[in-house]
Amino acid sequence: MSVGISYHLKKSFRSVKKFFGAGPYKSAIQSCPLQEIVGQEWKASAEAIFPGQQSYQNCGVQSSRQIVEQALGLCLKKTELEFLEDAIKTCNVDKSTPHPQESGGTNAQDRQCILKSYGVDSSIKPTSVEEVDDALRNRKGVIVSADVQVLWNGRVPPPTPTGRHAVVLTHGDYDQNGNLTGVFVNDTGIDKRYRLSVDELEDVLDSGSGSMNVTDNPIWPDN
Q1: Among the listed residues 115, 74, 146, the one whose alpha carbon sits nearest the alpha carbon of residue 217
Q2: Residue 192: closest CA among 139, 138, 140, 154
Q3: I want to staple 87 with a disulfide (CB 3.0 to 4.6 A). Which of 93, 134, 207, 219 is the partner?
Q4: Closest Cα to residue 52, out of 134, 151, 168, 171?
């Protein structure tokens, strides 16, 4: 999702579709009991906000929702589809045919707009390991986009699809000297939470749009 280019590149992204169930559409509000994990470590927070498998082409929208819920410390009383419809109406998120199966593509500006619409201020930063490290050390929310062939290498059965995909980086992993050794990911595309090494992270960032969303204020616990 390069700046100014959304998932309108549908031909390259259609091969990702089979990993994003086309239905049935979610109607029940998923629980995310954030009030029960205050004071616990960040892993509990990252797990609590993770919505699982996305239903549409709405990886950036679902990534934004996780950041919003963590930043506000509450569950939004909206279904996945309701949240998507609001993002389309408010922030010009891609609405495609057939809707909603093919809808939900975003770029960094769209995601910034979604966050802002819920009162979460954020900035668009250039992607680099150093920028990610700085954001995570300061407990800020981070959304990056990447080529799924790089991001999902070894994580899904071949053939790996093509297209860009947005995920949340929840926290850094550090060695005994305080050096970043990896980052943890909430990925709604394949319904997984996993770790990327620093080398993998660098490749992932190089494959993406060159821009990432970073909240202006800390949102994660400090333990």
Answers
A1: 115
A2: 154
A3: 93
A4: 168
pTM: 0.84
Q: Is the separation of the CB atoms in 80 and 58 below 8 Å?
A: yes
3-class DSSP assignment, residue 154: coil
Span 52-105, pLDDT tens digits: 999 999 999 999 999 999 999 989 999 999 999 999 999 999 999 999 999 999
Rounded to the nearest 10 degrees, what angle do helices 80-91 and 108-117 cross at?
A: 110
Question: Position of tokens 């960032």?
Answer: 205
- Buried b / exposed e over 71-109, threshold 16 CB at 10 Å, is beeebeeebbbebbbbbbeebebbbbeeebbbbbbbbbb
Query: Is there a contact between 100 and 79 (Cβ–Cβ < 8 Å)?
Result: no
Q: Other C-beta atoms within 10 Å of 155: how many?
A: 14
Provide the pairing of β-strand 211-218 with 122-126: antiparallel
